[in-house]
Design goal:
- By secondary structure, the chain is an alpha+beta fold.
- Strands 1-2-4-3 form a four-stranded mixed beta sheet, with helices on one face.
- Helices cover 49% and strands 13% of the residues.
- The chain folds into two domains: 87 residues, no CATH class; 81 residues, TusA-like domain (Translation Initiation Factor IF3).
Amino acid sequence: MLTHISCAKWSEVERSISSILDPATTTDELSPLGRNIVDLMVAERGITGNILKPHFQAVLHRLLDPPQSERLIRHIEALFRDLEWKAQHPAQPPAPSTSSEKSEVSELNCSERVINVADIDPQYRHAILSRLFEHLAPDDSMQIVVDHDPRRLRLQLEARHGSRCGWSYLETGPDVWRVRLRLLGRGSEDHG
């Protein structure tokens, strides 16, 4: 199967697998071949996927100590979930702002991602949002739009990232809550 999907370019297979096994890799950094390999490792689609997933995990468990193998498996599963989410929710360009919007909302960075949380499967919401937050470049931001105050998510992000978690409410209910999340650079004092 790898021969087929890589057109027998084994150096590309090796680069893709090395990238997948790097815990710092995000889905944006994966090649199309890397995305296909992640799908084979996790999705259990077809005969190859049903065979590859358990064998790949067994190899990791034999080669690495249990915490390392579990972390790596979780990382690859997170890559898969993010790829699946992106496939189901292609990025939409931000709507043009109107003058009646709050000034902070109109300050939308053109590269700032706006995520409607209702579009994410509830069982994966916090994991996906945490992953997206963790992969922001320092001082970059993203917005989440949700139908309730996302306090639990804030507590989780602050517990993990401390003062590097910038949190600004742009809209506070009752029907819509809009929050700008920033991964603050080291030494930044802004707490949002």
